[in-house]
Amino acid sequence: MLIRLIYASRSAGMLSPVEVKDIVRSSQRNNGPLGVTGALILSNGIFLQCLEGDHRVVNALYHRILLDPRHREPAILSYKEIDQRLYGAWAMGLVSTTEAHRAIFLKYGAQAEFDPYEMRPAALELLFTDMVEHARPITA
Ligand SMILES: Cc1cc2nc3c(=O)[nH]c(=O)nc-3n(C[C@H](O)[C@H](O)[C@H](O)COP(=O)(O)O)c2cc1C
Questions:
Q1: Is residue 140, in this structure, part of any structural domain at all?
Q2: CA 46 – ligand 1 centroid, Å
Q3: Which residue of 72, 81, 105, 122 is surrounded by the most CB atoms within 10 Å?
Q4: What is the count of structural domains for the chain?
């Protein structure tokens, strides 16, 4: 069964660009062979990650990611069966903190600051759809 899991977490302190690159690099290395695709956003000190793949594989990966001390306060915001992947081409799409992307993040939230914890699952789906169309992945 193909599923999409979207969760948020807070970065533990200020992560350096090297630490963020390290996260993306290991994600790209590990997710490809697992058949997992997705995207990772970092904005306003909050990670928002979309993971797509077989439900057992995504669940196991999510629980492994939770053990990472670089983030805390994880919350699953959406978990659903899907027919098609949004991120068919990306093993782990992007990390973005740029102003251009911030505008997309804010478009789907009610808050003035990017706060995915307060966003509805449907809005999160639209956010990631928009990201696929308008954002280019940053390669680590
Ligand atoms: C917000 C966040 C998202 C992450 N996403 C992934 C991921 O999608 N895939 C992955 O393998 N590791 C991910 N990691 C990193 C893992 O926690 C772990 O460091 C990594 O898988 C270790 O890989 P390695 O043993 O190959 O070095 C993430 C870490 C953080 C903090």
A1: no
A2: 16
A3: 105
A4: 1
